[in-house]
Amino acid sequence: MELRIMTNKLILIGFIIYNCLYSEHVKIPLIVFCLLIYICVNLSIAITKKRKIKKDFTIISMLLSIYSYFEVEPLFILLLPLNLYEWGEDMPRFRWVIFVISMIPIILINGQLAAIYGLTTAFSFLLFSITKLDATRIEKLENQVDQTRKSNYSLAKTINENKEYMRQSQYTFQLEERNRLSQEIHDKIGHSMTGTLIQLEAAKRLLEKDREKAAELLQNAIHISKEGIEKIRWTLKNIKPSPEQMGINRLKLLIDECSARNHIQISFLYQGDLDVITHIQWKIIFENITEALTNTMKYAKATHVSINIHVLNTLIKVEVKDNGKGHGKIKKGMGIIGMEERAASVHGKVIVDGSNGFSVTTLLPKYE
């Protein structure tokens, strides 16, 4: 803002100098002296940051313009409006009042100078108003940028805190799970092993004295051992998640991560009895879906991807389809060949279609 106003002042000073050079009755030394003082004062206005000092220098500049008008050169009056607008820049409600006040000298000015003064005053007011609006808009944008920066910092801090909370929660969960397993092994398996050991020790002592009692104790030990083995199997079965849970949860994590990273909508649907899908089939399904999603993000220019897992009577159908540009003639690269090889390893196959968007369908046999 200060740069524009200073440029306008320099233009007016240049106009004054030009007219004085071609005028016969001028006081050149005095004009130069007054112009130097005016430039120094207005540079001080532009440099200083304190509002009160700015206003004091502005008043000095206006008084200098008025004095120079009467005593040195009438053209100095052209410098008055800009200083007047600067003086009232922090009073936007009285902007038009200040403009009217700046037009009052036109009544006292005679001849051609009155027209020049009126034009200069109007142009200066227009320039000052536009500059003020730009400055206000820039300040508003800077405030918005600062607010956005603060919001981003707050969001980043919240994310870091959430990550730390999740890490601590995961660690706490692991400790709780270890404690639960330890307690469960102690309560269910430890007691069985202790009972078995006691029975075996007693049978060892009675083996020569009372064979029937020793045989009974051995049978009890065998029975307790069988119960302990069953408890171990039951505990491990409860601890180990099913293949269906592992497969679906792993796929959901992959889909959420891919959707967030690439800003694309991905829908996921699964139907049928997913328990029949084996570990090796889940591995093939996961790797083929990963490869299909990677190709979609690279080449398809799609906005939506649908993933559908359907367990039918004799096979498992996995389809990844996007709404991208598709491809009429499909050239199989390493990605598609890799998907076909993975499916073929369990006697399955892969069907690729690029006629309407792009779809990759993996068909795997269903094992009973």
From TrEMBL:
The keyword Nucleotide-binding applies. InterPro entries: HATPase_C_sf, Sensor_HK_TwoCompSys, Sig_transdc_His_kin_sub3_dim/P. The keyword Cell wall biogenesis/degradation does not apply. GO terms for molecular function: kinase activity. It catalyses: ATP + protein L-histidine = ADP + protein N-phospho-L-histidine. Its EC number is 2.7.13.3. Residues 177-242 form the Signal transduction histidine kinase subgroup 3 dimerisation and phosphoacceptor domain. Pfam families: HisKA_3. It comes from the Bacteria. PANTHER family: NITRATE/NITRITE SENSOR PROTEIN NARX-RELATED (PTHR24421), NITRATE_NITRITE SENSOR PROTEIN NARQ (PTHR24421:SF10). This is histidine kinase.
